Amino acid sequence: MNNEPLAIPTMAEMAAQGKEPEILFWVGCAGSFDERARKITRDICKILHHVGISYAVLGTEENCTGDPAKRAGNEFLFQMQAMMNIQVLDGYNIKKIVTGCPHCFNTIKNEYPGVGGNYEVIHHTQLIQQLINDGKLKAEGGESFKGKRITYHDPCYLGRGNDVYEAPRAALEILDTELVEMKRCKSNGLCCGAGGAQMFKEPEPGKKDINMERIADVIEAKAQVVAAACPFCMTMLTDGVKNQDKEQEIKVLDIAEITARANGL
Amino acid sequence: MIAQIIFIIILGAAIYQFSKNVAKIRRNILLGKDTNRKDQPGLRWTVMAKIALGQTKMVKRPVAAVMHFFIYVGFIIINLEVLEIMIDGVFGSHRIFANPLGGLYGFLIGAFEVLAVLVLTACIVFLCRRNVIHLKRFTGTEMTQWPKSDANYILITEILLMTAFLTMNAADYKLQLLHFGHYVSAGSFPVSSLLAPLLPDGASALVITERVCWWFHIVGILCFLNYLPYSKHFHILLAFPNTYYSNLNAKGKFTNMASVTNEVKAMLDPSYIPENTGEPGRFGAKDVTDLTWKNLMEAYTCTECGRCTYVCPANITGKLLSPRKIMMDTRDRITEIGNNIDKHGKDHQDGKSLLDNYISREELWACTSCNACVEACPVNINPLEIITEMRRYIVMEESQAPASLNNMFSNVENNGAPWKYSQADRFNWAEEQ
Ligand code: SF4
Ligand code: SF4
Question: Of B215, B244, B273, which one is at a domain's C-terminal end?
Fold first, then answer.
């Protein structure tokens, strides 16, 4: 493993040097602040470095996209955030964005155009799929996932929300693992319980929490690794696994982490 | 002659009554706000052909799909037969298509009979699923007395209508064998010929049986037609326009409220002159009239099948939310408003609203906006849009969001993140190993 500190380029630095990167990496709030998600953020950067894509992040100039406000019904706050972000993005003349969060992905891709922000937006799993297809990423030189039972949890805002089902699976298929599907998957996938701003409130009263229901699917599929592609799903799934005392048997890993590990990054 | 006059009167009354009720539903739907669903007609026709005509979303549940398909095809095709009955009824003829169609007629009648048996089978299976097996999807708090009996009435009526049709044909078949009166040999009767031995042998008894069944069949159909506007069975008509006007955007894309855009632009840039977006109205939806006509059309299209509720993560884990109930409440409320208008005039206020009187806040806050309900609905209904609109009202008009969400809002506003972290720490991750 390469332990040198990564130098993460920011848009401000790039602009100061008169450069424009090919792609902006939109990190998102979870990717910036959540301890677990920060590791994934760094893995995405490692992948970008590894394949030599010129990229940059906004760093402290980035702001919440407004997704949780919008899903909770606060359209004012959402549009304020959107318009401020669009000002920053357009100020740097950004055309193409990759993000590790399906919520940021959905919001910038689908809802920003309505308030004047037009960008080509892809999710990191789509970038990984492209890199694999172009032969730039292999799954060599790192940890072997061979023979492991891996299942993939579809984030609602990537899958049902935007019909991205194949890209994350393509990233797992090259690992030579045993990819198993849960009984509820793809367009029938079950929510992790965090969407629609639920992440930021206590769940309403009920029989159980949604992530517990979801973990039962993972356990039923007898998966050793459950692959996530969303920082919120990551939190919910990890909590679920902990709650069931299955931390030894089941690992929750993001597609970016798996890819970085498989390539020895 | 008298029979013809009676028939024409019944037919006219049935059509009049039906159009009146349909017009009422149309009026109610148009009480909703405008939304543009007229773009891309080509794609819209395709969606309708696939989802409504082709039933592509039904196949996810194979048993229901096959049974539903029988009833659906039966319904469409048997309309041809009803056409003949109407003409015969008005002109006093008997099996008017028999001569002109010749061999084809025989084939058609045979096909109708087979379909009738399939419809009968499907109805019996459906009745069992609801009343004997007690399938989970057909229970739930919103499945109270009326929705339950509504479903049973529909199935029983269809069984009666099909039985009458087959008995009528059996009597006709026997009369044909007797070469009685105008009952000249017409068609082939693969199913009803098997029933023939059960009927009396005397010609007059057979004529009575045939006539009684004929009247029962057609009057039954006309009554059923008039039952539709009061029933979830109305979906057989609305499924078509409802899928035509489907949302064609990605499911994750929520509407951007134009009225808010104006205010936000003015806030960010004091020199901005707002565009005129018409009357200001209310933010979000408190009552059904704050929803769009499409939301209301969906409410009248809902077949109460519960596929949405069955996949709803909130519902699965025992929370109060049921997307089917959202749709049923919306329909009940708009119907109530419509009835108020009929009784007390256009401006009558009954002091009630969809929020609180029908749908509780606890239901609304349980939604994860996962779109599972939208995906599952066989006729492209979107309960999530109604939920979101109502959340908008609670948050923007009432400022009554749950306290934890208000914290999140102020964090986003002040720190640019939903958590209480400083903006300056946003890039700290870059320093880590
Ligand atoms: S979007 Fe909301 S109502 Fe629909 S299935 Fe998901 S949680 Fe339930
Ligand atoms: S909204 Fe759709 S899925 Fe839900 S009960 Fe109505 S018809 Fe069925």
Answer: B244
